[in-house]
Amino acid sequence: MRRALTLAALLLLTACGEKPRTAPPASASGGADGHDCAHAVLVQSVREEYDWIARNHPGFEMGTQSLSSCPDFPVDILEGKLPDGTRAAYYFNIKIVMEEERKMLEGH
Asked: N or C, where is the chain less crowded by C-beta within 10 Å?
């Protein structure tokens, strides 16, 4: 549990320190729509999640962000409301992010 909390804190710190991108990152532009595990959007950073939401769902009102897991990879789930009031959740495959965080914790 302590390790999970440490990883979550590192993810948030990493997101805060990233520079905004001017072009869509290659990993988050592969056509996945993020509506469930089978269609999770592969990202290389938490910033990419927010960039993807802004690009694909303008006006999305952020509610909650949570860590979870799909059968083969960890996910970050962003939940909130679309401009028409419809509730929506988007799944982001964060296996690359978690691997980078693990390496950082191990000192690699």
From this structure: N
